[in-house]
Automatic annotation (TrEMBL):
It holds the Pfam family Neprosin. This is Predicted protein. Residues 212-466 form the Neprosin PEP catalytic domain. Residues 139-190 are annotated as: Disordered. InterPro entries: Glutamic_endopeptidase, Neprosin, Neprosin_propep.
Length: 466
């Protein structure tokens, strides 16, 4: 993390089954109507049951019931806000129990046995998992293997001139760290998965047909290069806490390394910071990664939520909150990210900060990116669900337009790409694009200190963006 201050610029016995189902139905119907007269019901608002109930049910089933009530409450409020009919709000207990069973199965896959557990100040639980037990090694092509040795750093790489600290995540403020031979993994909870619009697609982006498509609500302000073969990219990314207007919207700033077509066989490697209430349950900016090899359809995921990315670093938790963040007319902070293809083995490595290797995406995950990228993008993306029929107020970057400049607008600086001979060079012929410039815009430039850079972002809905 760099400070920029001077640059200016859930078993219960079978004899109780009928009673259980009645209790579930009672909870579902009465809770969704905010009724609390019936003592047979479990109420989400109190999160308690009678002592008699404690003797009837195992603690694990009780936990399922409470989660079911929580789901009912969440569904009810969401349905109401989305103009659902009363019939739509009727939940089927057996279906919900099946959903909770699926959630348990998924959590068993994602959350691995922990050697040590760390409580983060922001509420996250960080599990220190043996390196060889991380989710990546569930992949058939990685089972029984060990992580690769560090690759050769691209020629021309140098640390930024500013003093960068790698302890830039909130969980590290606990003073605890993961022991040698382990990696830190943010624990995924039932609540995380219950927030998701679909259990089957938890941890995945909504499929986008095109980079600049507007029919699914994704909007961008990006700088990009194309027209040659790309073997990596590097940039310093200004970190903010933009407002995200609803649970199912997000705001992010990232680097994309891209190959293939945007329609069906898109390969991407992505890294940066994002705010996603649906994925994380809060509005902290979080360091994240993503990958896909089929245009976001069935492959890939965020962070370590599927087998894919192999983490090698025990001090950086992917998906953990970043701290500190920039403030308007105040201190400015950024993170430096480098993605590059190992010339020897062909895997795509990720570096965070001043020399901290995070891990790599194995080359076999991809089709086109087995060879090289055909485009690199830098910039911001938001999801616009058009609440009430108008543009969202979800912010991009700092929430201010590019024209406000340093200390007010968000930036990318020192934009570089990795060439065919594993050499870092400044980007050339950078093109800029804003899908909706009245909502979020972008302005580029070059100077001696920042090299190639741009300011970008905006407030979303405003008089010029109705």
């Amino acid at each position: 993390m760099c400070l920029i201050g001077l640059l200016g610029d859930v078993s219960v016995t079978s004899r109780r089954r009928t009673t259980i189902q009645n209790r579930i139905k009672c909870c579902l119907f009465d809770h969704s109507r905010r009724k609390q007269q019936d003592s047979r019901c479990f109420h989400h608002s109190s999160h308690q049951v009678s002592s008699k109930s404690d003797t009837m049910f195992s603690s694990s089933f009780l936990r399922l019931i409470l989660l079911l009530c929580l789901l009912s409450s969440s569904f009810s409020s969401t349905a109401s806000s989305s103009n659902y009919t009363a019939a739509d709000q009727t939940l089927r207990p057996q279906e919900e129990l099946q959903k909770l069973k699926l959630i348990r199965q998924e959590l068993d896959k994602i959350n691995k046995p922990a050697v040590k557990t760390i409580q983060s100040p922001d509420g996250d639980v960080i599990d220190c998992v043996s390196t060889h037990q991380q989710p990546a090694f569930d992949h058939p092509l990685l089972q029984g293997q060990r992580p690769m040795d560090p690759p050769e750093i691209p020629e021309g790489y140098k640390k930024d001139d500013e003093s960068c600290e790698e302890d830039s995540q909130l969980w590290s403020l606990s003073g605890e760290s993961c022991p040698e031979g382990t990696i830190p993994i943010r624990r995924t909870t039932e609540q995380d998965m219950l927030r998701a619009s679909s259990v089957s697609r938890f941890g995945r982006k909504i499929r986008r047909v095109r980079r600049d498509s507007t029919n699914n609500g994704h909007e961008h302000a990006v700088g990009y290069v194309t027209g040659r073969q790309y073997y990596g990219a590097k940039a310093s990314i200004n970190v903010w806490s933009p407002r995200v207007a609803s649970q199912y919207e997000f705001s992010l700033s990232q680097i994309w390394v891209i190959a293939g077509s945007f329609t069906h066989d898109l390969n991407t490697i992505e890294a940066g910071w994002q705010i996603s209430p649906e994925l994380y349950g809060d509005t902290y900016p979080r360091f994240f990664t993503y990958w896909t090899s089929d245009a976001y359809r069935t492959t890939g995921c965020y962070n370590l939520l599927c087998s894919g990315f192999v983490q090698t670093n025990r001090r950086i938790a992917i998906g953990a909150a970043i701290s500190p963040r920039s403030s308007y007319k105040g201190g400015q902070f950024d993170i430096s990210l480098l993605i590059w293809k190992d010339p020897k083995h062909g895997h795509w490595w990720l570096q965070f900060g001043s020399g901290a290797l995070v891990g790599y995406w194995p080359a076999f995950l991809f089709t086109h990116l087995k060879q090289h990228g055909s485009m690199v993008q830098f910039g911001g993306e938001i999801v616009n669900n058009r609440p009430g029929g108008s543009h969202t107020t979800t912010q991009m970057g700092s929430g201010h337009f590019a024209g406000e400049g340093f200390g007010k607008a968000s930036y990318f600086r020192n934009l570089q790409i990795v060439d065919w001979d594993n050499t870092l060079i400044p980007v050339s012929n950078l093109k800029i694009l804003a899908d909706h410039p009245n909502c979020y815009d972008i302005r580029g430039g070059t100077n001696r200190v920042w090299g190639n850079y741009f300011y970008y972002g905006g407030p979303g809905k405003n008089p010029r963006c109705p």
